[in-house]
Design goal:
alpha+beta, Alpha-Beta Plaits, 4-stranded mixed beta sheet, two-stranded antiparallel sheet, elongated, metal-binding, Formate_DH_Fe-S_su, 4Fe-4S dicluster domain-containing protein
């Protein structure tokens, strides 16, 4: 643990959150999640595994009417949330202008699949060269940096699904932890942020403090609940239930430094295959929360996924606020003292 003297512990880069929270030099490396949304299939296995392992109550099971999303967002009873986002936009170098109107798909289904892999249909992340060979009659693929255009004039509406499993970010600078008056929220030796439900008094200060809107109060008793990154499983040397259940490895768990390196390589790989929109979210230690313990690979702007584009820890300005309040109080007291002294002087109106 480095010296805490002269450092701002509420904002900025923080290499060892667990050490600064009081855990000794022998504590484990910081652990985290890397969620690669490019391979998420929306199966919701992570949601189910999270609820089963943590005995979380059901949360209504009400469809929004706008997608296949039945949980709508993170909350006290939803610690993992799979978003379904439908867009009229192709992904990467996917060829969308090929005309298949003359193909009897039912007859093809009855025949089964005997197509060699090299002649198979184009997938969303098929490189441009492969796409051209798979669909020779289609127009050439656009440049990798080009923005996909609107639907074709003939009325065809090509679309893509963006699916992403959202979770608590376990921020480096966690405002929820900073404002908790009872110590119910604490930093673990793995660098994660956990709620002790038996210590929480239901004050709710942490709810507006979270820049992501993650933490929430349970309606029946007022206490707050959120993802613990399966703290009990980590202590037993196991990975969190959601990562264990994910069939595509969209949710990856491990030491945070290793995950960041893996994520950077994955983004580079997607860029090489033509997916120019791929970018990381929450992986930068220089961002407004000091980097997230759970970060994401996104295929569009963060706002599309319901994430803030530039999150900032809400307690960042507390030191300057207290300084300004102190100056204002000192000025007020000085003015009152001056008025009192003037009234005590001969001829100043005092008795």
């Amino acid at each position: 643990m480095s010296s805490l003297i002269g450092r701002n512990l509420l904002a900025g880069p923080e290499p060892d959150p667990a050490g600064d929270a009081g855990h000794g030099p022998g504590h484990p490396p910081r652990m985290g999640f890397f969620t690669d949304t490019s391979v998420c299939i929306g199966c919701k296995a992570c949601e189910v595994a999270c609820k089963e392992w943590n005995a979380i109550p059901e949360d209504g099971l009400e469809l929004t009417g706008m997608s296949y999303d039945n949980t709508q967002g993170l909350g006290a009873d939803t610690w993992r949330h799979v978003a379904f986002i439908e867009q009229s936009k192709p992904l990467g170098h996917a060829v969308t202008a090929a005309d298949h109107s003359d193909i009897d798909v039912l007859a093809l289904a009855a025949q089964g699949s005997g197509t060699p892999p090299a002649e198979a249909a184009v997938t969303p992340t098929t490189p441009a060269a492969s796409a051209a060979s798979a669909a020779p009659d289609a127009p050439p693929a656009p440049d990798a940096a080009a923005v996909p255009g609107p639907p074709a004039p003939d009325g065809r509406t090509e679309l893509r699904w963006l699916m992403s499993s959202d979770v608590c970010k376990h921020c480096t600078h966690a405002a929820c932890l900073d404002v908790c008056p009872t110590g119910a929220l604490f930093r673990t030796e793995f660098g994660t942020v956990v709620v002790q439900e038996d210590v929480c008094n239901g004050c709710g200060y942490c709810v507006p403090a979270c820049p992501y809107g993650v933490i929430d109060q349970r309606k029946d008793d007022g206490r707050v609940f959120k993802c613990t990154m399966c703290y009990d499983r980590l202590g037993a040397g196991q990975e969190p239930a959601c990562a264990k259940a994910c069939p595509t490895d969209s949710i990856q768990f491990g030491p945070l430094d290793e995950l960041r390196e893996r994520a950077a390589a994955r983004v580079e790989q997607l860029h090489e295959t033509g997916v120019a929109d791929a970018r990381l979210y929450g992986a930068d230690p220089e961002d407004g929360v000091g980097g997230d313990g759970a970060f994401f690979l996104l295929l569009d702007d963060p706002e599309v996924y319901g994430l803030p584009p530039d999150p900032v820890v809400t307690t960042r300005d507390l030191p300057s606020m207290w300084r300004h309040a102190g100056v204002a109080a000192a000025t007020l007291l000085g003015g009152l003292a001056a008025v009192f002294a003037a009234n005590r002087m001969p001829g100043g109106g005092g008795r």
